[in-house]
Amino acid sequence: MAKATTYLFLVDGITSEKAEKLRKAVLVSEKISDVSIKLNSGLVSVTSSRDPEAELKMACSIAGCMFRMKVSRKKANYWA
Fold first, then answer.
1. CA 30 to chain centre
2. Which pLDDT belongs to residue 73?
3. Which of 1, 31, 61, 66 has the fewest beta carbons under 10 Å from its own?
4. pLDDT per residue over 58-76, tens digit each?
């Protein structure tokens, strides 16, 4: 089994209700093991065995928020 890696993404227009919908929609994928969302910065951290960008984009459209970009570890502290 592949090693789980943490991926960081920036999402716009996220509220507490949308965050809960986003979390539920992302966790449907069996490759994703954990999701954490920082509401004040819009930073979404996804622990997965492969790149979850496609799943996150689909979950954003379901939750009603806007996927902005993938964030590198170096720039993650800027948004945190």
1. 15
2. 72
3. 1
4. 999 999 999 999 988 766 6
